[in-house]
Amino acid sequence: MIKRLGHSVREFKKYALISPVLVAIETFIETFIPYLMANMIDKGIIPGNLGYIEKLGAFMLVGTFISLAGGAGASWYSSKASAGFAKNLRHDLYYHIQDFSFEDYEHFSTSSIVVRLTTDIMNIQQAFQMLIRAAARAPLMLIFSITMAFTVDAQMAMVFVVSVPAMAIGLTIIIAIGRPLFKKVYQRYDGLNRVVRENLRGIRVVKTYNRAETENQKEAQASSRIYEVFSKAERILQLNSPIMQFVMYGTLLFLAWFGSKRIVAGTMQPGQLVSLLAYAMSVLMSLNILSNVFNQMTISLASAQRIDEVLTYNSTLTTPKDALTNVANGDIEFKHVDFNYADDHVTRLHDINLHIKSGETIGIIGETGSGKSTLVQLIPRLYDVNKGKVDVGGQNVCYYDIRTLRDNVSMVLQQNVLFSGTIAENLRWGDEHATDEQLVHAAKLAQADDFIRSLPDGYDTYIEQGGSNVSGGQKQRLTIARALLKRPKILILDDSTSAVDTHTDSLIQKAFRDELPHMTKLIIAQRISSVQSADRIVVLNDGKIEAVGTHNELLKSDSLYQDIYNSQIKGGDSHAKN
Ligand SMILES: Nc1ncnc2c1ncn2[C@@H]1O[C@H](COP(=O)(O)OP(=O)(O)OP(=O)(O)O)[C@@H](O)[C@H]1O
């Protein structure tokens, strides 16, 4: 996992390597200073040798400046390396999830992905900075200080053989308990993110239904759940402070007690004791730094695992090596297709067999939940079939390069969105190189040109996030124009004219018939009038094809179609009558 994540350091590797080198210089000089200090006391101050004091003082001053410069440089490079690492890691994660299928997004949930891209990466950034700065400093300081302490007085330095492992065992236990708790904390962050996103997305509905109070409660609940685990995890981590202090004061007491005795006995110099105490402080300080580093590592290991989980997740959508990069025509064939959503064991489509010829216009109708959207989502491989196969242009959809397939199958989803940017920018999602004439032509076919021109800035009108400043019907027409701009071989409209008035809807159908005769068109609709003129209409009932035929044929032969027709034409509900 560490190696995989470390791959994202890339061009910032040099900064990540320079930082510990500078830290080493800083720490080496820093730990040498108490040794010089001991000499100054024992050989300069006690015998009253002023020349020695001045020489050593100047030497210490220069050393301090070099140490400071090393420390400042290390901070600068470590910040640069860690910020760069986080940038690359975020990019890699984002890049990876672009290949996810709908099923994969459902597997992780969008809120969890957002937390991983933000909070989790921030934790890793902080841990990485610590790793190349503090984590490099602490062990070096520990090694240098213990070595120097043994140089000064090996007997007294034996105290570290007890105090260092005692501290290390304490820290290991704390980390073992703390780490799973932090993993839980971030899972609960996902929950909070979900509540906030849902609330902001549906803020109009929240206000209409006066649900602010309930929404506040949901947020409070999610926050409390985080608080519960977070405070528990932090309480455990904070235990390292009393353990650290206990070991630190115990060591200092030991040194002061036995050191004083030896000075009185004349087997030790006062300067030696001063430097030993300074080294004891350094050793324990380095352990303290290490414990902080471990704390941060504990938090970030949970985050690193969550990121690695996404990075190593193989999308359920696979493309063969020699994938096809050309779709011959708009022919579609479903052969004995069964389908169920992952984690949902109900079969939503049963033994679907349907051949649609290139250029045909097919209406799809059926009661709500009968599987209309599910059926068409299999064509651009938004989901893969469980049984049977779907062919496009005479080839199994799984054999195509996914981009090629989706460039040739344009789908206007039931809940389509526009993105912040101008209308022209939004339409160019279909084809970024489209000329202005092509843009206008697509808008005209979708009956959107007139209303776009009536806006103060026309095609340059700015669309707010999610398309909140255009009406539902206008938004639908813009998303149809966007899909047309791709000039696909197959166009799928999934209930995409539901908010458009019937007159405009019929103008769209006519424009399609007259101007796009070679494009295969699948139109899912609730209104019979939207599919009435189609070459054939497929009636779906509970995931099965109940009938296929023209409007007139179905009116004569299919009772479900008759029911839908009657309920719409007569305004009554024939189900209710039966
Ligand atoms: N992502 C999903 N996970 C699990 N079940 C789903 C999912 N999407 C749809 N379903 C279920 O599959 C069935 C068919 O849904 P589908 O959206 O295809 O129906 P539909 O005919 O398009 O309905 P509508 O006319 O209301 O849009 C429904 O029972 C629905 O609850």
Question: Which features does this protein show?
Answer:
578 residues; alpha/beta; ABC transporter transmembrane region fold; Rossmann fold; 2 domains; six-stranded mixed β-sheet; four-stranded antiparallel β-sheet; 23 helices; 12 strands; disordered C terminus; binds adenosine-5'-triphosphate; P-loop_NTPase
Question: Topology, please?
Answer:
Layout: H1 2-6, H2 13-45, H3 50-98, H4 102-108, H5 110-132, H6 134-152, H7 154-157, H8 159-201, H9 203-208, H10 212-238, H11 240-265, H12 270-311, E1 332-339, E2 349-356, E3 361-366, H13 372-377, E4 387-392, E5 395-396, H14 402-408, E6 409-412, E7 421-422, H15 423-427, H16 436-445, H17 449-454, E8 462-463, H18 472-484, E9 490-494, H19 502-515, E10 520-524, H20 528-531, E11 536-541, E12 544-549, H21 551-557, H22 559-569, H23 574-577
Parallel strand pairs: 3-10, 3-11, 6-9, 9-10
Antiparallel strand pairs: 1-2, 1-4, 4-5, 7-8, 11-12
Helix pairs in contact: 2-3, 2-6, 2-12, 3-5, 5-6, 5-8, 5-12, 6-12, 8-10, 8-11, 8-12, 11-12, 16-18, 21-22
The chain binds adenosine-5'-triphosphate (ATP).
